[in-house]
Specification:
64% helix; Rossmann fold; 3 domains; two-stranded antiparallel ribbon; ABC transporter transmembrane region fold
Length: 589
């Protein structure tokens, strides 16, 4: 192209000048189209990959045993931080950097070809000077590779330290009412600031390392140039080459190739390499979830629909100690449950557990649901529909994943394809002391119909009436369309409790487990909630854990638990007449 300006023929010069602008215009159009296609396709790939990673990692997390989340490094705040921040970093790698790295790689390949041609030309002009220049130029590339291991290690350290500070922030925001009530915002800020000291030190160390490595590259370049001119001057002084050969060789190897191709491409890629190494280290943390083994894989079985669960139920706890022990300290608490379930009870029986030590009873409700699982699984195994191994497999899979019943259409009359745990969910439901956290960020209508998505408006209203919730819902501006807020923050404690009770009335379970179901209401609202509970317990088995004796006063059987043992059992009148531990607790209230 440059030679065209030195053509002696004026017409040939004009033709060449017209031709090259057209070529560059066509290249610009091709470049625009290629860049649009590149960014569009990488954006689609980014969103698809991000969605896939989040879904699979989240599904993998849900399959872990409960003991996994007891570790400090796997708390809710830390897991949420990794699920959000680290996946976002992978998204940044794919969308913002990966396409640019492909461009850089293509440019580097073209530069490598240009370097080979330039080296051949330089060796033909002045081979001694060319050999020296080629030998010293690799020094400028060493700095880019020296930081790889150090940056990867520092990046993981910073990310882990940030997880701890993020956990503090998540828990502080979630419990901001408590923080404001006790006036401990300054103390919490101090804890957060202290948690930031370690990532700050690691970030400063990484900045120093990166700065020193990046500064070494231009320093080595200038030193190599000085060596080139010094040696070229010596050769020119000895008459081996001319001064023009020195400048020709220098500009061929340095100006033409190194500055244009290597510096503009490789040095431009140096920050990308830094991001690449950092994000690769973060990605190892995400994909480490896949390396963790779960106890067993999910299993679906074909069983007959239960028809006799309203008859007498005999409960027997049968479990594999080695497997159950992996869930934590459940073997100790199972002893409490076994003691409390020595004889079978009919469906009409209502039982309550009262504890003076606030330990042991709430976990017993979970163990009761486990016992019902094994009881029904034993029935299926006796009938030859599934094996004993299938009972244990399905139980230990589903006990740590999900408790929502997901039904499918019947494949034959009176026969369903249902997961084993969901069979028990068809006639059992738990309301626990954390029921207020079970309210979703949606309307009251949707929260009530959560257990029965196909419920009609009349069924929802009738369930709310049964839970003494219809009156206060009707006074709200938007009625059943009122948004509950995050975890039901727009509602009071007793209102959330009554909505939860309405949800269970709508679902109509045959077995109801109540864990501190009257813990949230105040004294004035407790009577309303208790009336709703008495109404929902009619015609079904109810197992209640409570500290307020008014909640269990009218139940058929009350078991008083202390120090891990059932020490008294009977109805309210019998226990108070004994003047024992239960009587003393009643006097305190």
């Amino acid at each position: 192209m440059i030679a065209a300006f030195f053509l002696p023929d004026h017409d040939a010069l004009k033709s060449a000048i017209r031709r090259y602008p057209l070529i560059f215009s066509a290249l610009s159009i091709v470049s625009i189209a290629a860049n649009l296609a590149q960014h569009y396709n990488f954006a689609v790939m980014r969103e698809t990959l991000t969605r896939r990673i989040r879904l699979r990692v989240f599904g993998k997390i849900l399959s872990f045993e409960p003991a996994y989340f007891d570790e400090e490094a796997n708390s809710i705040g830390a897991v949420c931080a990794r699920l959000g921040d680290e996946v976002a970093l992978v998204k940044t790698l794919v969308a913002d950097q990966f396409s640019l790295m492909i461009q850089t790689a293509a440019a580097a390949a073209a530069a490598a070809a240009a370097v080979a041609v330039a080296m051949a030309m330089a060796l033909a002009v002045a081979w001694k000077l060319a050999v020296v220049m080629i030998a010293v130029q690799p020094l400028s590339f060493f700095s880019y590779y020296a930081k790889k291991i150090d940056l990867s290690r520092l990046t993981v350290k910073v990310a882990r330290a940030q997880d701890y500070s993020t956990q503090i922030a998540v828990e502080a925001v979630y419990n901001h009412h408590i923080v404001a009530s006790f006036g401990c915002a300054d103390k919490l800020l101090g804890i957060f600031q202290k948690a930031q000291e370690e990532p700050k030190r690691a970030a400063v160390k990484r900045a120093w390392t990166t700065g020193m490595v990046m500064d070494c590259s231009p320093c080595l370049s200038f030193l190599s140039w000085a060596l080139d001119f010094w040696y070229g001057g010596k050769l020119a002084e000895n008459g081996e080459i001319s001064a023009g050969d020195v400048f020709k060789t220098f500009f061929i190897l340095t100006k033409l190739v190194y500055l244009v191709c290597i510096l503009e491409k490789v040095l431009h890629a140096a920050p990308l390499l830094h991001i690449y190494y950092a994000l690769c280290a973060i990605s190892l943390s995400i994909f480490s979830y896949y390396a963790k083994k779960i106890i067993l894989s999910r299993l679906t079985v074909k069983v007959a629909r239960a028809q006799d669960h309203n008859t007498q139920i005999g409960i027997e706890v049968v479990y594999n100690h080695n497997i159950v022990a992996s869930f934590g300290c459940v073997d100790k608490l199972l002893g409490i449950f076994q003691k409390a379930q020595e004889e079978p009870k009919r469906v009409a029986v209502k039982r309550a557990w009262i504890t003076g030590m606030a330990m042991g009873c709430s976990p017993c409700l979970s163990f009761l649901s486990w016992a019902l699982d094994f009881w029904y699984g034993g029935k299926l195994a006796e009938n030859g529909e599934i094996s004993v191994g299938d009972v244990f497999k399905t139980f230990f899979i589903l006990v740590s994943t999900s408790k929502m019943a997901l039904y499918q259409r019947p494949v034959t009359s009176r026969c369903y394809v249902i997961t084993f745990r969901n069979i028990c969910d068809t006639f059992m439901e738990i309301i626990n002391e954390e029921v207020k956290d079970m309210l979703r960020i949606c309307r009251i209508r949707d929260n009530i119909s959560f257990g029965k998505p196909d419920a009609s408006e009349d069924e929802i209203v009738e369930a709310a009436r049964g839970a003494n919730a219809h009156d206060f819902i009707s006074t709200l501006k938007e009625g059943y369309g009122t948004d509950c807020g995050e975890r039901g923050l727009q509602l009071s404690g007793d209102q959330k409790q009554r909505i939860a009770i309405a949800r269970e009335i709508l679902r109509n379970p045959s077995i109801l487990l109540l864990d501190e179901a009257t813990s949230s209401p105040d004294v004035l609202s407790e009577r309303v909630v208790q009336e709703a509970l008495q109404r929902i317990m009619v015609g079904r088995t109810a197992v209640v854990v409570a500290h307020r004796l008014n909640t269990v006063k009218n139940l058929d059987t009350i078991a008083f638990v202390a120090e891990g043992k059932v020490i008294e059992q009977g109805n309210y009148t019998l226990l108070t007449s004994k003047r024992g531990a239960f009587f003393n607790l009643a006097m305190l209230q």
